[in-house]
Amino acid sequence: MQEPIIKVENVSMMFNINNEKIDNMKEYFIKLITRKLHFSEFWALRDISFTVNKGERLGVLGLNGAGKSTLLKVMAGVMKPTEGSITIKGVIAPLLELGAGFDMNYSGKENVFLYGATMGFSRKFVQTKYDYILDFSELHEFIDVPVKNFSSGMRARLGFAIATAVEPQILILDEVLSVGDARFRIKSEAKITSMFERGITVIFVSHNTDQVRRICNKAILLEKGRIIAQGTADEVCDIYDVITNKK
Amino acid sequence: MNNKYLKNLYKYRFLLQEIVRKNVRLQYRDSVLGVFWTFLQPLLTTLVLVVVFGRIFGKTNSGVVSYPIYLLCGRLLFEFFSQSTKRAMHSIEDSSSVIKKVYVPKYIYPLANVISTFVTFLISLSVLFAMMAYYSLFTNVHLFYTKYDFLAFIPIVILFMLCIGVGLILSVLAVFFKDVEYLYDVFTLLLFYMTPIFYKLNQLHLNSMVNYGLMANPLYSIVSMFRACVLYGVMWNWNWFFYSLGFSILTIIIGVWTFYKNQDKFILYL
What we know:
The complex is a heterodimer. Chain A is α/β, with parallel strands linked by helices. Chain A folds into two domains: 4-90 and 169-243, Rossmann fold, CATH 3.40.50; 104-166, no CATH class. Helix content of chain A is 37%, strand content 27%. In chain A, the strands form two sheets. Chain A has a six-stranded mixed beta sheet, sandwiched between helices. A three-stranded antiparallel beta sheet of chain A has the order 2-1-4, with helices on one face. The longest helix of chain A is centred in the middle third of the chain and has 15 residues, at 123-137. Chain A starts with a strand and ends with a helix. Chain B has one domain (2-269). Chain B is 75% helix and 0% strand. In chain B, helix 4 (67-94) packs antiparallel against helix 8. Chain B starts with a helix and ends with a helix. Chain A binds chain B through residues 15-16, 23-26, 28, 73, 76-80, 92, 94, 96-97, 100-101, 103, 105-106, 110, 113-114, 116-123, and chain B through 11-12, 14-15, 17-19, 22, 25-26, 29-30, 97-104, 176-180, 183, 264, 267-269.
């Protein structure tokens, strides 16, 4: 059933880079008056178009600086594209950085509700998922400790548990599955795979082509902000492996 | 267009609740005095001001009924204004780690900070009630309790609106210009002296131009309205009402417009 759930149409993202960072009013006005306010343009994304259907798992590959994270941020609504449009039908749970919605002084338990609310879910709803979150993250004894005292692995487990517990329609993963110990990686991959049966759509950025081949069925390859390859996960991974001289 | 924004706010109402809850909780956690400080701080500052200025501005024939209560009214309202706007100013930057990774409607942060400061303000109002009760029961100071006391919430609502408008404007400026925070600190300090908190305007015997200048401060109208209800038990001067209401609505419009125009650029500066 081909039902487009994400449509990216002619998206371009431009950043203004200036040589000196002007961040106070005095300098801004001086430069404005003396006409020294120069910016040079950097196009992180150029005319990107693709469609993701419901239930598909799209891998996003590319060397560092290709524009993968920028693309994810534009898709997650964190940035507004300079040109083009993105249409998304459904709740997105972005895992761009594990525990990004956390407040460090808040306890693990309080952060569960805060993070859930960041994605638009009520306390009542998150409460029904609370036991699952505790069990998956294996943080039973530590849940009342302030998150600033958590190890990065604990934060990763908690963030992942919450994002998957709320059963989003779209999951965006930015290299997060490569964080954490081997046990966590196996567990998180298993959880994502189990969500496929319920038709979850996944956007997965990674440099690990083995993982991409396992998890994704389609993939795109970015280079300098443009899509240079599109196709099945295996096809695109092959091309990427050649570029990175893996084979 | 409006419908889309209202729908979005509705969707994120839980986040607004959670952030307000968090701000209030974290304010008192890990502090020695906790909620007690919310009572103690206005009391202490009022005490100092009474001792220092009481003899100059608070003589019995100066028409302030009760100088400590006169002070406290002005002080509490001013404190709410300066605290809430300062917190709103920092709010976008403080939440930069979230904004850079997840989509949230960004205006939620200044809004939540004004609301959570408002909660603290309500708690501190109890000091005012306590003081009024003390003076009524234990001294022979005659306070006026009339039906106008019930109107006291109106200047508070207008003040709330003013704080939101100013907070929104400041939060946008603070993202782009780091020195706004220092400039605003100085500004609020000066504003304290420009608002009749520890003096009554006619006691200063200023020439009429300067008088009008000081009356242009919307806080002057708001504090005067509040004092009219609570302290003097009379209806306020309607000029104050229309001026402060108009000013507050204008700042909200400017704040929302500034925010709307610039919010997509925040991420580039955070």
